[in-house]
Amino acid sequence: MNYKIIINTLLSLSVLACSELPKSMQATQTIGRFQVQNDVVTDTRSNLMWSRCLLGATWNGTSCEGKPSEYSWQQIHNLVKTLNYADYSDWRVPSLEELKSLADSESSAPMIKIFYLNPTVFPMPNCQGTKSGLGLNNDGHVCWHWSSTTIEGSKHYVWIMYFGYGHGSANYEADRFALRLVRNNR
């Protein structure tokens, strides 16, 4: 028996086993109700899959890198039609209720209780604070997330969600905000 061939074969197989696995085979980490697998997160309550980073930022293995992009409402709807993210092509813009379901109302920040996204699951820009006394957060519009929910009776206003202080607002569809992708996890 040629042990040299067997050992070389075993070494080759171990190198293959340690190389990067397809997303479907990568380890999943559970954090609360969320199952985290690199750049996607599955909410076990709703069975929705979310992008871990806002669109435009990328997951680098430990955090979201880069500044999220800002889009108009029309741009996001055109974008999701052709988008392939994390090997899926059926992403969509979340409804206001779906975005609200992500808010962690059980956690608290210093001095005030706020709704926010769990930063371990969904790393976010700094969404608390002001800039030049304008009432904007430190990172501009990227803390506001577009929803697919339109304002009833309006042709040009859409609901957006702000995770720094946990509230929604009606906004004009031509304004530019960030997008967190969602898909039904089948």
Structure summary:
Helix content is 18%, strand content 22%.
N-to-C span: 49 Å
Give the helix proportion (percent range): 10-25%
Rg calc: 20 Å
The DSSP helix count reads 3
Number of domains: 1
Low-confidence stretches: 10-25, 108-114, 130-138
Q: Main sheet?
A: 5 strands, antiparallel
Write down how many β-strands occur, each being a DSSP E stretch of 2 or more residues: 10
What this model shows, in words?
By secondary structure, this protein is α+β, with helices and mostly antiparallel strands. It has one domain. The protein is 18% helix and 22% strand. The chain has 3 helices and 10 strands; from the N terminus they run H-E-E-E-E-E-E-H-H-E-E-E-E. The strands form 3 sheets. It has a 5-stranded antiparallel beta sheet, with no helix packed on it. A hairpin with a 2-residue loop joins strand 1 and strand 2. The radius of gyration is 20 Å and the shape is globular. The termini are far apart. About 17% of the residues have low confidence.
Keywords, separated by commas or semicolons:
186 residues; alpha+beta; globular
SSE layout:
Blueprint: H1 3-18, E1 29-31, E2 34-37, E3 40-43, E4 48-51, E5 58-59, E6 64-65, H2 73-82, H3 96-102, E7 144-150, E8 157-162, E9 167-172, E10 182-184
